[in-house]
Design a protein that fits this description.
Number of helices: 4
Strand order of the largest sheet: 3-6-9-10-11-12
Structural class: alpha+beta
Helix content: 10-25%
Length: 195
C-alpha cells in the first residue's frame, strides 16, 4: 500500500485483510485492539441485558455494540466502544466513514483487554474531549468497575471506581435506571480456570 495513504485508508485496508481486531484512530495514532475473548463478550451481553431490562431501547434510546464515534482529537480520529447507549435516532447523526457524531452518545463502555492503559488513559481523554456524558470501564485487570461522568476538556470531573460487592446505579442521563452488580459483571469477565 502506498505510504501517502491516510490513516483512515490504512485502517480500512487492514480491516479488510485482518478480520477480528478492532482498528481505531485516536490522537492521530492507529490503534489495534485484539480479538476479544469469550468472557469479554459475556460482560457485554450482561450489561446489554441490564440496559434492555431497564427500558433502554425504547423511543428515546437504544443500546448497541461496536458503533464508531467521531472524535474531535484529530481530523481522522474515531473510536469503536465495546458498547454504547445512544439516541434512538442515531442514523440521523452519521458523520463520515461509518462514524457517528458524539452528540448522540449518552454512554460508552469498554471492557479491558491485556493492556488496560488504552481504556483507562487514552480513551478517557478522547471520550471526554468528545463530550460523552458517561464512560464506564469494566477493568478486568484491577477488578474494578469505573464510572466517569461530567466530561471536561481532557478528562472527567467525576471518576468513581467500584469494587466487588457494590451495586452501581448508572446516571439517569443514559435514559433509564440501570443498576450493575459489580461482582457479577467482573466475574463474567474472568476466564474459566481449569482444575
Amino acid at each position: 500500500m502506498p505510504a501517502d495513504r491516510s490513516l483512515t485508508k490504512w485502517a480500512e485496508w487492514l480491516t479488510e485483510r485482518t478480520p477480528g481486531p478492532r482498528f481505531e484512530i485516536i490522537d492521530g495514532l492507529l490503534l489495534v485492539t485484539p480479538v476479544p475473548d469469550g468472557p469479554h463478550a459475556r460482560v457485554l451481553t450482561d450489561v446489554m441485558l441490564a440496559c434492555l431490562n431497564a427500558g433502554i431501547d425504547g423511543d428515546g434510546t437504544t443500546v448497541l455494540q461496536k458503533v464508531a464515534v467521531r472524535l474531535p482529537t484529530g481530523p481522522e480520529d474515531y473510536a469503536v466502544p465495546d458498547l454504547s447507549v445512544v439516541d434512538a435516532d442515531i442514523a440521523s447523526h452519521m458523520a463520515e466513514n461509518n462514524c457517528y457524531a458524539p452528540s448522540c452518545f449518552r454512554m460508552v463502555l469498554e471492557v479491558t483487554a491485556e493492556n488496560p492503559h488504552l481504556d483507562l488513559g487514552v480513551k478517557v481523554r478522547a471520550y471526554a474531549a468528545a463530550g460523552i456524558p458517561t464512560y464506564v470501564i469494566v477493568d478486568r485487570t484491577h477488578q474494578r468497575l469505573h464510572v466517569l461522568t461530567d466530561p471536561t476538556g481532557n478528562g472527567y470531573e467525576k471518576h468513581r471506581p467500584h469494587a466487588p460487592g457494590e451495586i452501581v446505579a448508572l446516571p439517569d442521563s443514559i435514559g433509564a435506571k440501570v443498576t450493575l452488580d459489580v461482582a457479577a459483571i467482573l466475574k463474567a469477565g474472568q476466564p474459566a480456570t481449569s482444575d
